[in-house]
Every structure is written in C-alpha cells, then in structure tokens.
Write the structure tokens for this entry.
Amino acid sequence: MIAFGRVAAVAAFGICLTIAAGRAATAHRTAVRAAPAAALDSNTFMTVDAAAKKVTIQLDAAYNSQNGGMNFNGGSKGDQTITVPLGWSVHIAFQNKDAIPHSAIILADHMPLPLQPDNPAIARAYTKDVTAGIPTDGTDTMDFTAQPAGNYLIVCGVPGHGPSGMYIKFVVSADAKAPQYAK
C-alpha cells in the first residue's frame, strides 16, 4: 500500500510539473505576442531622393510576430501610415519573410476590405501573383506615380489576409512636402 502511495505521489508530481511547464510555455508565447512593437525608425523602411521626387520603400511581409505575422513592416490593422506627396515616383521593394505566401496591393481606404482584392486603386501598385501570393523569401517590386491624392491601404491580396488585419495606410497628399513613415 505504501509503495502504491509513493508511485501515485510521483505520478501526481510528474503531472504537476507537466502542467506547470505547459503553463510557463503558454505564458512565454503570450508574453512574446503581447510585447509592444519597437519604435518605428522610418529610415529602416524608407529612403527619399528629394531632388528626383522619388521615394523607395522596403515592404516586408511578416516582418515580426505582430498580428500573428500578418503584417507589413510590423504594422497591421492600419497602425502605420506612409504619406507620399502627390506626383512623386514610388518604388516599393516587397519581400515575403513568412512561411506562407503574401502579396501587396494598394486599395482605396474603404471597409470592409474585399476577401480577394484584384483591382488596384493606383495603376501598377501591386505585386505579382496578388491572389496566390509570393512564396517564402520571394521578392517583387512596384513602381508607380503617387496619384491621385487620397487615402489608400497597402493590403495583402491573398484571400482573407487583408480582412484579418494585414494592411497599413498609404496616403497620397497634395499638401505634403516630403514623404513620411509614421506609426
């Protein structure tokens, strides 16, 4: 009877350790997800040639774990804004850092977002394979003129990704003197 009691105690202790380890791992994953995003350094994602009126933007899909990896440069659900003066040349260098395909397309800032966007609001403002997405470590570029003035969104075109929060704001401004990237 005592031997059985010791076995039961050891088994119960093992179960408690397993539960505690599981809770600690869950708490760690939650803490990692809940960590605040680092301050945005626009120089990381944007270079400006004022004389040529050209802006180059690095757009990384799944830059970090924000919104479960459904983000551009760590921004999601419209929490980052890129502003470009009207008429400037825009070059966007897109890279997918995620294990699943992503793409980018500029749409008018209207909600709800389409499940499967296919028509850019600005000519040539989309990556290849908008619906299928670009595979892991894949790249593409977008080159277009910032016009007309208005409020837009850079959205992942893979079905369901935009409505899941994978979008940031893109503004073409008649009043802006220089491009800005803000959180």
Summary: The longest strand covers residues 54-61.
